[in-house]
Amino acid sequence: MMDKMQVKPSIYSLKYSDLKEWLEQQGEKSFRAAQIFDWLYKKRAASFDEMTNLPKSLKEALAEHFDLTTLKTIVKQTSKDGTMKFLFELHDGYSIETVLMRHNYGNSVCVTTQVGCRIGCTFCASTLGGLKRNLSAGEIVAQVIKVQQILDEIGERVSHVVIMGIGEPFDNYEEMMSFLKIINDEKGLNIGARHITVSTSGIIPKIYQFADENLQINLAISLHAPNTELRTKLMPINKAFKLPDLMKAVKYYIDKTGRRISFEYGLFGGVNDQVEHALELAELIKDLKCHVNLIPVNYVPERNYVRTSKNQIFRFERTLKEQGINVTIRREHGHDIDAACGQLRAKERKIETR
Ligand code: SF4
Protein backbone atom coordinates (compact mmCIF):
# COMPACT_ATOMS: atom_id res chain seq x y z
CA MET A 1 0.00 0.00 0.00
CA MET A 2 1.31 3.40 -1.01
CA ASP A 3 1.86 5.94 1.76
CA LYS A 4 -0.78 8.60 2.08
CA MET A 5 0.71 11.33 -0.03
CA GLN A 6 -0.41 14.89 -0.35
CA VAL A 7 -2.91 14.94 -3.19
CA LYS A 8 -4.90 17.65 -4.84
CA PRO A 9 -8.67 17.49 -4.41
CA SER A 10 -10.66 16.09 -7.30
CA ILE A 11 -12.36 18.72 -9.46
CA TYR A 12 -15.39 16.40 -9.42
CA SER A 13 -15.80 17.12 -5.69
CA LEU A 14 -16.98 20.64 -6.47
CA LYS A 15 -20.65 21.46 -6.64
CA TYR A 16 -21.50 24.16 -9.16
CA SER A 17 -21.76 26.73 -6.36
CA ASP A 18 -18.33 25.67 -5.00
CA LEU A 19 -16.75 26.07 -8.41
CA LYS A 20 -18.25 29.55 -8.83
CA GLU A 21 -16.91 30.52 -5.43
CA TRP A 22 -13.44 29.21 -6.26
CA LEU A 23 -13.44 31.11 -9.55
CA GLU A 24 -14.40 34.31 -7.79
CA GLN A 25 -11.54 33.81 -5.32
CA GLN A 26 -9.22 33.45 -8.31
CA GLY A 27 -10.50 36.74 -9.75
CA GLU A 28 -12.20 34.87 -12.61
CA LYS A 29 -15.64 35.52 -14.04
CA SER A 30 -18.33 33.25 -12.66
CA PHE A 31 -19.62 32.31 -16.15
CA ARG A 32 -16.50 30.17 -16.42
CA ALA A 33 -18.19 27.72 -14.04
CA ALA A 34 -20.74 26.83 -16.72
CA GLN A 35 -17.97 26.30 -19.27
CA ILE A 36 -15.98 24.08 -16.92
CA PHE A 37 -19.05 22.02 -15.96
CA ASP A 38 -19.78 21.61 -19.64
CA TRP A 39 -16.28 20.27 -20.26
CA LEU A 40 -16.43 17.97 -17.26
CA TYR A 41 -19.94 16.58 -17.51
CA LYS A 42 -21.13 17.03 -21.09
CA LYS A 43 -17.92 16.73 -23.10
CA ARG A 44 -16.21 14.47 -20.53
CA ALA A 45 -12.80 16.13 -21.00
CA ALA A 46 -9.86 13.98 -19.97
CA SER A 47 -7.56 16.92 -19.18
CA PHE A 48 -7.77 20.62 -18.37
CA ASP A 49 -5.77 21.26 -21.54
CA GLU A 50 -8.73 20.13 -23.62
CA MET A 51 -10.85 23.00 -22.29
CA THR A 52 -10.12 25.17 -25.28
CA ASN A 53 -12.44 28.05 -24.50
CA LEU A 54 -10.70 28.77 -21.17
CA PRO A 55 -7.74 31.14 -20.93
CA LYS A 56 -4.37 29.44 -20.50
CA SER A 57 -3.91 31.00 -17.06
CA LEU A 58 -7.18 29.49 -15.82
CA LYS A 59 -6.32 26.05 -17.21
CA GLU A 60 -3.01 26.26 -15.36
CA ALA A 61 -4.68 27.35 -12.13
CA LEU A 62 -7.15 24.45 -12.40
CA ALA A 63 -4.34 21.96 -12.96
CA GLU A 64 -2.40 23.42 -10.04
CA HIS A 65 -5.32 23.11 -7.60
CA PHE A 66 -7.25 20.05 -8.76
CA ASP A 67 -6.89 16.54 -10.08
CA LEU A 68 -9.04 15.40 -12.95
CA THR A 69 -8.13 11.75 -13.27
CA THR A 70 -8.64 10.07 -9.92
CA LEU A 71 -9.46 6.46 -10.71
CA LYS A 72 -7.41 3.81 -12.44
CA THR A 73 -9.20 0.73 -13.83
CA ILE A 74 -7.63 -2.41 -12.37
CA VAL A 75 -10.23 -4.99 -13.37
CA LYS A 76 -13.20 -4.83 -15.74
CA GLN A 77 -15.47 -7.87 -15.90
CA THR A 78 -18.35 -8.20 -18.32
CA SER A 79 -21.18 -10.62 -17.72
CA LYS A 80 -23.22 -12.43 -20.38
CA ASP A 81 -26.19 -10.23 -19.40
CA GLY A 82 -24.18 -7.04 -20.08
CA THR A 83 -23.46 -6.21 -16.44
CA MET A 84 -20.01 -4.72 -16.03
CA LYS A 85 -18.11 -4.75 -12.82
CA PHE A 86 -15.11 -2.52 -12.24
CA LEU A 87 -12.35 -2.50 -9.69
CA PHE A 88 -10.86 0.99 -9.55
CA GLU A 89 -7.69 2.00 -7.78
CA LEU A 90 -7.66 5.26 -5.83
CA HIS A 91 -4.70 7.63 -5.56
CA ASP A 92 -3.56 6.03 -2.30
CA GLY A 93 -3.64 2.48 -3.64
CA TYR A 94 -6.96 1.41 -2.11
CA SER A 95 -9.48 -0.14 -4.46
CA ILE A 96 -13.23 0.14 -4.83
CA GLU A 97 -15.98 -1.56 -6.83
CA THR A 98 -18.48 -0.04 -9.21
CA VAL A 99 -21.13 -1.89 -11.21
CA LEU A 100 -22.99 -1.00 -14.41
CA MET A 101 -26.33 -2.77 -14.85
CA ARG A 102 -28.14 -2.72 -18.17
CA HIS A 103 -31.91 -2.58 -17.75
CA ASN A 104 -34.62 -2.23 -20.35
CA TYR A 105 -35.40 1.18 -18.80
CA GLY A 106 -31.80 2.45 -18.87
CA ASN A 107 -28.30 2.12 -17.53
CA SER A 108 -27.86 2.04 -13.80
CA VAL A 109 -24.57 2.51 -11.97
CA CYS A 110 -24.05 1.20 -8.47
CA VAL A 111 -21.42 3.29 -6.67
CA THR A 112 -19.24 2.81 -3.62
CA THR A 113 -19.01 5.48 -0.91
CA GLN A 114 -16.34 4.12 1.43
CA VAL A 115 -13.20 1.98 1.30
CA GLY A 116 -14.49 -0.91 3.39
CA CYS A 117 -17.27 -0.51 5.91
CA ARG A 118 -17.61 -0.51 9.67
CA ILE A 119 -21.22 -1.62 9.90
CA GLY A 120 -20.35 -5.32 10.14
CA CYS A 121 -23.34 -6.99 8.46
CA THR A 122 -22.62 -10.67 8.88
CA PHE A 123 -23.35 -11.57 5.26
CA CYS A 124 -21.10 -8.96 3.67
CA ALA A 125 -17.57 -9.32 2.33
CA SER A 126 -17.06 -5.54 2.24
CA THR A 127 -16.90 -5.20 5.97
CA LEU A 128 -14.31 -7.93 6.60
CA GLY A 129 -11.37 -5.50 6.91
CA GLY A 130 -13.37 -2.74 8.58
CA LEU A 131 -13.48 0.83 7.34
CA LYS A 132 -10.29 2.21 5.78
CA ARG A 133 -11.54 5.64 4.80
CA ASN A 134 -14.41 7.65 3.36
CA LEU A 135 -14.46 8.53 -0.31
CA SER A 136 -14.60 12.16 -1.33
CA ALA A 137 -17.58 13.32 -3.38
CA GLY A 138 -15.21 13.56 -6.35
CA GLU A 139 -14.18 9.94 -6.00
CA ILE A 140 -17.83 8.91 -6.06
CA VAL A 141 -18.65 11.17 -9.03
CA ALA A 142 -15.58 9.83 -10.88
CA GLN A 143 -17.04 6.30 -10.73
CA VAL A 144 -20.08 7.48 -12.67
CA ILE A 145 -17.89 9.41 -15.12
CA LYS A 146 -15.71 6.35 -15.75
CA VAL A 147 -18.76 4.25 -16.60
CA GLN A 148 -20.25 7.07 -18.67
CA GLN A 149 -17.05 7.22 -20.72
CA ILE A 150 -17.56 3.56 -21.61
CA LEU A 151 -21.21 4.17 -22.50
CA ASP A 152 -20.16 7.15 -24.65
CA GLU A 153 -18.59 4.64 -27.01
CA ILE A 154 -22.04 3.20 -27.78
CA GLY A 155 -23.93 6.49 -27.54
CA GLU A 156 -25.76 5.71 -24.29
CA ARG A 157 -25.97 7.48 -20.96
CA VAL A 158 -26.08 6.65 -17.29
CA SER A 159 -29.74 7.21 -16.46
CA HIS A 160 -29.94 5.79 -12.93
CA VAL A 161 -27.62 5.72 -9.94
CA VAL A 162 -27.90 3.49 -6.89
CA ILE A 163 -25.73 4.03 -3.84
CA MET A 164 -25.54 0.40 -2.85
CA GLY A 165 -21.88 -0.43 -3.41
CA ILE A 166 -19.27 -0.81 -0.70
CA GLY A 167 -19.86 1.29 2.42
CA GLU A 168 -22.70 2.83 4.35
CA PRO A 169 -23.56 6.09 2.56
CA PHE A 170 -25.05 7.70 5.69
CA ASP A 171 -21.71 7.10 7.45
CA ASN A 172 -20.18 9.47 4.87
CA TYR A 173 -23.13 11.84 4.77
CA GLU A 174 -21.63 15.17 3.69
CA GLU A 175 -19.65 13.75 0.76
CA MET A 176 -22.61 11.64 -0.28
CA MET A 177 -24.85 14.72 -0.30
CA SER A 178 -22.35 16.67 -2.43
CA PHE A 179 -22.19 13.71 -4.80
CA LEU A 180 -26.00 13.68 -5.10
CA LYS A 181 -26.13 17.41 -5.81
CA ILE A 182 -23.41 17.18 -8.47
CA ILE A 183 -24.93 14.29 -10.41
CA ASN A 184 -28.44 15.73 -10.07
CA ASP A 185 -27.40 19.20 -11.32
CA GLU A 186 -28.74 19.84 -14.80
CA LYS A 187 -25.42 21.48 -15.63
CA GLY A 188 -23.70 18.32 -14.33
CA LEU A 189 -24.76 14.80 -15.25
CA ASN A 190 -28.44 15.75 -14.94
CA ILE A 191 -29.57 12.46 -13.42
CA GLY A 192 -33.10 12.96 -12.10
CA ALA A 193 -33.66 12.66 -8.35
CA ARG A 194 -36.30 10.01 -8.92
CA HIS A 195 -33.69 7.97 -10.76
CA ILE A 196 -31.34 7.97 -7.78
CA THR A 197 -31.58 5.54 -4.86
CA VAL A 198 -29.68 5.69 -1.59
CA SER A 199 -29.54 2.52 0.46
CA THR A 200 -28.83 2.51 4.18
CA SER A 201 -28.39 -0.18 6.78
CA GLY A 202 -30.49 1.99 9.09
CA ILE A 203 -28.56 4.88 10.67
CA ILE A 204 -31.64 6.43 12.17
CA PRO A 205 -30.57 10.06 12.82
CA LYS A 206 -29.42 10.33 9.21
CA ILE A 207 -32.75 9.03 7.92
CA TYR A 208 -34.43 11.97 9.66
CA GLN A 209 -31.80 14.35 8.30
CA PHE A 210 -32.19 12.96 4.78
CA ALA A 211 -35.98 13.27 4.99
CA ASP A 212 -35.54 16.94 5.92
CA GLU A 213 -33.38 17.60 2.83
CA ASN A 214 -36.65 17.68 0.88
CA LEU A 215 -35.37 15.79 -2.12
CA GLN A 216 -37.23 13.38 -4.35
CA ILE A 217 -34.48 10.78 -4.08
CA ASN A 218 -35.49 7.18 -3.36
CA LEU A 219 -34.53 5.66 -0.06
CA ALA A 220 -33.95 1.95 0.41
CA ILE A 221 -33.55 0.29 3.79
CA SER A 222 -31.52 -2.90 4.12
CA LEU A 223 -33.94 -4.71 6.35
CA HIS A 224 -33.19 -8.42 5.84
CA ALA A 225 -35.18 -9.59 8.87
CA PRO A 226 -38.72 -9.23 10.19
CA ASN A 227 -37.89 -9.09 13.89
CA THR A 228 -35.32 -7.70 16.30
CA GLU A 229 -33.67 -10.96 17.23
CA LEU A 230 -33.00 -12.10 13.69
CA ARG A 231 -32.01 -8.65 12.48
CA THR A 232 -29.47 -8.28 15.28
CA LYS A 233 -27.96 -11.62 14.25
CA LEU A 234 -27.65 -10.57 10.62
CA MET A 235 -26.92 -6.89 11.17
CA PRO A 236 -25.27 -5.89 14.45
CA ILE A 237 -26.21 -2.26 13.76
CA ASN A 238 -29.65 -3.28 14.98
CA LYS A 239 -28.28 -3.16 18.54
CA ALA A 240 -27.56 0.56 18.23
CA PHE A 241 -30.54 1.45 16.02
CA LYS A 242 -33.42 -0.76 17.01
CA LEU A 243 -36.04 -2.08 14.63
CA PRO A 244 -39.07 -0.29 16.17
CA ASP A 245 -37.16 3.02 16.06
CA LEU A 246 -36.09 2.31 12.50
CA MET A 247 -39.73 1.82 11.52
CA LYS A 248 -40.62 5.17 13.09
CA ALA A 249 -37.87 6.88 11.09
CA VAL A 250 -39.08 5.19 7.92
CA LYS A 251 -42.61 6.42 8.55
CA TYR A 252 -41.27 9.95 9.07
CA TYR A 253 -39.44 9.73 5.72
CA ILE A 254 -42.56 8.59 3.91
CA ASP A 255 -44.76 11.26 5.53
CA LYS A 256 -42.23 14.02 4.90
CA THR A 257 -41.36 13.22 1.28
CA GLY A 258 -44.48 11.43 0.05
CA ARG A 259 -42.09 8.89 -1.47
CA ARG A 260 -42.53 5.16 -1.34
CA ILE A 261 -39.72 3.45 0.52
CA SER A 262 -37.98 0.25 -0.55
CA PHE A 263 -37.04 -2.53 1.81
CA GLU A 264 -34.17 -4.70 0.70
CA TYR A 265 -34.62 -8.23 1.95
CA GLY A 266 -31.81 -10.67 1.23
CA LEU A 267 -32.92 -14.28 1.38
CA PHE A 268 -30.51 -16.51 3.28
CA GLY A 269 -31.24 -20.22 3.08
CA GLY A 270 -32.78 -21.54 6.30
CA VAL A 271 -32.21 -18.27 8.16
CA ASN A 272 -34.86 -15.72 7.18
CA ASP A 273 -36.59 -17.28 4.19
CA GLN A 274 -39.47 -19.27 5.68
CA VAL A 275 -43.18 -18.53 5.27
CA GLU A 276 -43.38 -17.54 8.93
CA HIS A 277 -40.76 -14.84 8.23
CA ALA A 278 -42.74 -13.57 5.26
CA LEU A 279 -45.88 -13.31 7.41
CA GLU A 280 -43.98 -11.49 10.14
CA LEU A 281 -42.47 -9.12 7.59
CA ALA A 282 -45.89 -8.36 6.12
CA GLU A 283 -47.20 -7.55 9.59
CA LEU A 284 -44.24 -5.22 10.26
CA ILE A 285 -44.62 -3.11 7.12
CA LYS A 286 -48.27 -3.48 6.12
CA ASP A 287 -49.22 0.10 7.02
CA LEU A 288 -46.31 1.71 5.18
CA LYS A 289 -46.17 3.03 1.61
CA CYS A 290 -43.46 0.63 0.58
CA HIS A 291 -42.10 -1.97 -1.72
CA VAL A 292 -40.03 -5.06 -0.93
CA ASN A 293 -37.08 -6.15 -3.07
CA LEU A 294 -36.29 -9.78 -2.47
CA ILE A 295 -32.66 -10.49 -3.18
CA PRO A 296 -31.57 -14.08 -3.68
CA VAL A 297 -28.21 -13.76 -1.98
CA ASN A 298 -25.11 -15.10 -3.66
CA TYR A 299 -23.05 -17.55 -1.70
CA VAL A 300 -20.23 -15.61 -0.03
CA PRO A 301 -17.24 -17.89 0.54
CA GLU A 302 -16.08 -16.04 3.68
CA ARG A 303 -19.49 -16.46 5.30
CA ASN A 304 -21.60 -19.51 5.92
CA TYR A 305 -24.82 -18.42 4.27
CA VAL A 306 -26.30 -20.53 1.48
CA ARG A 307 -28.68 -19.63 -1.30
CA THR A 308 -32.41 -20.03 -0.92
CA SER A 309 -33.96 -22.49 -3.39
CA LYS A 310 -36.02 -21.10 -6.28
CA ASN A 311 -39.19 -22.69 -4.92
CA GLN A 312 -38.69 -21.09 -1.55
CA ILE A 313 -38.04 -17.68 -3.12
CA PHE A 314 -41.37 -17.91 -4.99
CA ARG A 315 -43.16 -19.14 -1.87
CA PHE A 316 -41.84 -16.17 0.08
CA GLU A 317 -42.89 -13.75 -2.64
CA ARG A 318 -46.35 -15.31 -2.91
CA THR A 319 -46.89 -15.08 0.84
CA LEU A 320 -46.06 -11.37 0.85
CA LYS A 321 -48.37 -10.76 -2.12
CA GLU A 322 -51.21 -12.59 -0.40
CA GLN A 323 -50.76 -10.18 2.50
CA GLY A 324 -51.11 -7.20 0.13
CA ILE A 325 -47.43 -6.26 0.04
CA ASN A 326 -45.79 -4.87 -3.12
CA VAL A 327 -42.91 -7.17 -3.85
CA THR A 328 -40.48 -8.05 -6.61
CA ILE A 329 -37.67 -10.52 -6.84
CA ARG A 330 -34.58 -8.66 -7.92
CA ARG A 331 -33.27 -9.87 -11.22
CA GLU A 332 -29.78 -11.16 -10.72
CA HIS A 333 -27.11 -9.23 -12.53
CA GLY A 334 -23.76 -10.61 -13.47
CA HIS A 335 -24.34 -13.94 -11.83
CA ASP A 336 -21.35 -15.32 -13.77
CA ILE A 337 -18.99 -12.64 -12.43
CA ASP A 338 -18.12 -11.61 -8.85
CA ALA A 339 -21.40 -9.79 -8.48
CA ALA A 340 -21.99 -9.64 -4.74
CA CYS A 341 -20.90 -6.49 -2.99
CA GLY A 342 -17.23 -6.67 -2.01
CA GLN A 343 -16.47 -10.01 -3.66
CA LEU A 344 -14.26 -8.65 -6.40
CA ARG A 345 -12.34 -6.39 -4.08
CA ALA A 346 -11.92 -9.17 -1.53
CA LYS A 347 -10.60 -11.50 -4.20
CA GLU A 348 -8.28 -9.11 -5.98
CA ARG A 349 -6.95 -7.23 -3.00
CA LYS A 350 -6.74 -9.71 -0.16
CA ILE A 351 -4.38 -7.44 1.76
CA GLU A 352 -7.03 -4.72 2.14
CA THR A 353 -9.68 -6.91 3.64
CA ARG A 354 -7.63 -8.53 6.35
S1 SF4 B 1 -24.02 -4.60 3.58
FE1 SF4 B 1 -23.47 -2.44 3.28
S2 SF4 B 1 -23.69 -1.56 5.35
FE2 SF4 B 1 -23.60 -3.77 5.65
S3 SF4 B 1 -21.42 -4.19 6.00
FE3 SF4 B 1 -21.78 -4.44 3.79
S4 SF4 B 1 -21.25 -2.48 2.89
FE4 SF4 B 1 -21.54 -2.15 5.09
From TrEMBL:
Pfam families: Radical_SAM, RlmN_N
Manner of cofactor binding, per the entry note: Binds 1 [4Fe-4S] cluster. The cluster is coordinated with 3 cysteines and an exchangeable S-adenosyl-L-methionine.
Sites where the protein binds S-adenosyl-L-methionine: G167, E168, S199, S222, L223, H224, N298
Molecular-function GO terms, alphabetical: 4 iron, 4 sulfur cluster binding; metal ion binding; rRNA (adenine(2503)-C2-)-methyltransferase activity; rRNA binding; tRNA (adenine(37)-C2)-methyltransferase activity; tRNA binding
Active site (catalytic residues): E97 (proton acceptor), C341 (s-methylcysteine intermediate)
PANTHER family reported in the protein's UniProt record: 23S RRNA METHYLTRANSFERASE, RADICAL SAM CORE DOMAIN-CONTAINING PROTEIN
Family label: Belongs to the radical SAM superfamily. RlmN family.
Alphabetical list of NCBIfam families matching this protein: rRNA_mod_RlmN
Extra remark beyond the main annotation: Reaction proceeds by a ping-pong mechanism involving intermediate methylation of a conserved cysteine residue.
Name of the protein: Probable dual-specificity RNA methyltransferase RlmN
Lineage: Bacteria, Bacillati, Bacillota, Bacilli, Bacillales
